[in-house]
Amino acid sequence: MDIKISIVNKSPHQLPAYQTTGSAGMDLRAWLPEPVTLAPMARKLIPTGLYMALPHGHEAQIRPRSGLAIKRGLTLINTPGTIDSDYRGEVMVPMVNLSTEEQVIEDGERIAQMIISRYEQAEWEQVETLEETARGAGGFGHSGTK
């Protein structure tokens, strides 16, 4: 089901868009007065010029672009990042340079992807015990490697 989302675009760049008919994420573009250079391991919030009003029960997940990550070592600090339905500030992308070389981010460059997703809000029901399962309390690596 498609939804309509109110968006303000203060940048000169096109709105986020799906690149193919099967894309789950829309590309976000940097809105920069001048290029930003990220030294190795440096972090910076990159503005997009976008402001939106997501419908209640929806979030925007901000995720890295795989091409930037593998080719240039540029990724996001917390991923996926969540934009809540009641947030009205600018969409900012928290980038980090994991490469061994400086990386330059240009105005208009596609820097992240955004996925719109439905969510449920939970109501806690405190109990004394939990239903048993075959897994039980088995944690990291409990099922083996093969």
What is the strand and helix layout of this fold?
Elements: E1 6-9, E2 17-18, E3 26-29, E4 36-38, E5 43-47, E6 50-53, E7 58-63, H1 66-72, E8 74-76, E9 81-83, E10 92-97, E11 103-105, E12 110-118
Antiparallel strand pairs: 1-6, 2-3, 3-12, 4-11, 5-10, 7-9, 7-12, 8-10
Characterise the protein shown here.
There is one protein chain. With 146 residues, this protein is mainly beta. It has one domain: Deoxyuridine triphosphatase (dUTPase) (Deoxyuridine 5'-Triphosphate Nucleotidohydrolase, Chain A). 5% of the residues lie in helices and 36% in strands. It has a five-stranded antiparallel beta sheet, with no helix packed on it. A three-stranded antiparallel beta sheet has the order 5-10-8. A hairpin with a 7-residue loop joins strand 2 and strand 3. The longest helix is centred in the middle third of the chain and has 7 residues, at 66-72. It is globular.
Brief rundown of the structure:
It contains 1 helix and 12 strands, in the order βββββββαβββββ. The chain is mostly beta strands and 146 residues long. The radius of gyration is 19 Å and the shape is globular.
Question: Which terms would index this structure?
Answer:
146 residues, Deoxyuridine 5'-Triphosphate Nucleotidohydrolase, Chain A, five-stranded antiparallel sheet, 36% strand
